[in-house]
Amino acid sequence: MNILQRAAIAGLAIASVGGGFAGHAYAAGSTTAEPLFTRYARIYDAPTLSFGAEFFTNKPLEEIGDFDGYTLSLDFAWPINDRSQLRVLLPFYTNGDGQYYGSPDKRGVGLPVDIEGFNGVRDFFSLIYERRFGWLEDKTGGNVAWLIGVGRSMDPLEAKFGSALVDRASHQGYSTDIGLKFDDDVRGGDMTLLGSLLLRSFWTSDDINLSGGGTNFQLLTLSGAVMFNQYGPFTPVLEAVLEADFEDYTAFSLAPEAIYTFGENFDVKLGIPFRLTADGQDYAVDLELTYRFH
Known about the structure:
Blueprint: H1 3-18, E1 48-57, E2 64-79, E3 84-100, E4 111-117, E5 125-132, H2 134-140, E6 143-152, E7 157-161, E8 164-169, E9 174-186, E10 191-203, E11 217-228, E12 234-244, E13 250-262, E14 266-271, E15 274-275, E16 283-292
C-alpha cells in the first residue's frame, strides 16, 4: 500500500469522524484557521485539541533508508490566561517500512524491515509552556511569544525482518525546546503572516541523528506561512519549512495547504510538503483535525 492509498483511507476515516463535530479552532482575536506547522503566537481562548496524521516517503533515519510510513499524533493546548498556555504533544504511533543498513553511510545492500512503535520519529511526548512577549508586541505591532519545553521518548521504533527484531530506533532519549513565534493580520485581515523559530536539542537519543554523528545533537527549524482569509470557510495556505542540524543536514520544503472550517469549532486541514533540497524526506501528505472546546 503506497502513501497515496494510505492517505485516502485516512481521509475517509477522518471525514467520518469529522461528521460528528460542528466547529473550528479559533485563535484568540482571530476568525482564521491555523496552518499545519507554524502555530499562532497569540494565545487560544479555549482548550484546543488537534489530531494529526502524516504520511511520509523517504523520511531520514540514521541506519534505515527508504523509510516510508505514517505517524499519528495529538496536540492539546490549555490556555492558562490571556498571556500564556500549556501544550501537550503526543506522537502515539508510527508504522512503515524501509531498508536496514546498520550504519549511517547506508552502503551495501539493505535488509527490508517493517518499522513500528508507539512513538514519533524525532517528535517525543512533550510538555511546552508558551507566553506572549508584551513589550515586544508593543514594538512590532504583531503577536510575539516565546516557548520552552521538554520531551521524552516513550517507546522504541522496532525494525523487524519478518518476526525477528533487527534494531531499535528512538527507544531512549530526551529533548528540550526553546523558540519564538510571531503572527500578524495584514491587508485588513485578508491575509495572516506567521513565523516560527525552534531549536530542539536531543540528548542520549538512539539512531535518529540526521547526520549520523552520535546520540546528542540539535535541530533548528525555521518556518513561515501566509494565509489567505478572504474565501469564507475555505483558507488556502502556503508554508515553508527550513531544517538544519549544524552539521551536514539542511532541508527546505514548501507546503501548499487547504483548510476548511465547519461552524465555529472544527476544521479539517490538508497539506502536501515537498522538499526542494537533497536533504529531507521526499514529500508527505499531512491531515489534521482541530477542535476547540468552547
